[in-house]
Amino acid sequence: MERKTPDVPQELQRLHEFEGHWDVSQKVWEGPNAKPLASSGKCDCRVILDGLGVTLAYDFEKGNRMKGFALITHNAPSNQLELAWADTFTTGGVTMMTGREDRGPSRGELGRKHAGATQERVWSAAPVVERFASGQYAAGCVPPDAAGPLIAGLGGGPGALERQSFPLRLVENRISKDHWVLEFFGQAAGGREYLVQENTYTRAR
């Protein structure tokens, strides 16, 4: 008996809009009161598996040099989006995130700066243990000058740390079909949430 390919759920169909080539500018804050660290690069988004999967390949060449890869699909039994992420910067292996649609007007400062912007999806990642060298940062990891459980100072050279990340929340905001802003939120002392990373996507021409 021939197996039928599952229908592509609407949650994934709406992600197909992101297919294409993008210029990406990134800002990262190492703590709630830190100045942002800027990077820029490219992102190539492709729809695969007859629409049942989406991949994103990143190549940052300016600022924090990094290559990364994400695979997104839909888990029908749990009715949620799932994302697997790996990159050349962190050493914690594959980061798993789960996502859901949460559509409505963009909130906070972004909503004020971009009238008509809409929030599309919200993602979350559980805490993981990561090791990173002195001077490096990782989204969701809180550096020594902020609150965060230092586990060990092992490997990686002077100042290297092994630290547990706080839960990470990612919000996708659609300004237009050619302009998106992704906001990553971590936690500081007392569980207070703050903006850790902001990626701005402009469709390449």
Mind sketching the topology for me?
Elements: H1 10-15, E1 20-28, E2 37-48, E3 53-62, E4 66-75, E5 80-87, E6 95-105, H2 108-113, E7 118-125, E8 129-132, E9 150-152, E10 161-164, E11 168-176, E12 179-187, E13 193-203
Antiparallel strand pairs: 1-2, 1-13, 2-3, 3-4, 4-5, 5-6, 6-7, 7-11, 8-10, 9-10, 11-12, 12-13
Explain this structure:
The chain has 205 residues and is mostly beta strands. The chain contains two helices and 13 strands. The termini are far apart.
CATH architecture: Beta Barrel
| Global Rg | 18 Å
Strand content is over 45%
How are the strands of the biggest sheet laid out side by side? Answer: 1-2-3-4-5-6-7-11-12-13
The number of domains is: 1
Strand runs, count: 13
CATH fourth-tier homologous superfamily: Calycin beta-barrel core domain
The name CATH uses for the topology is Lipocalin
Note the gap between the termini. Answer: 46 Å
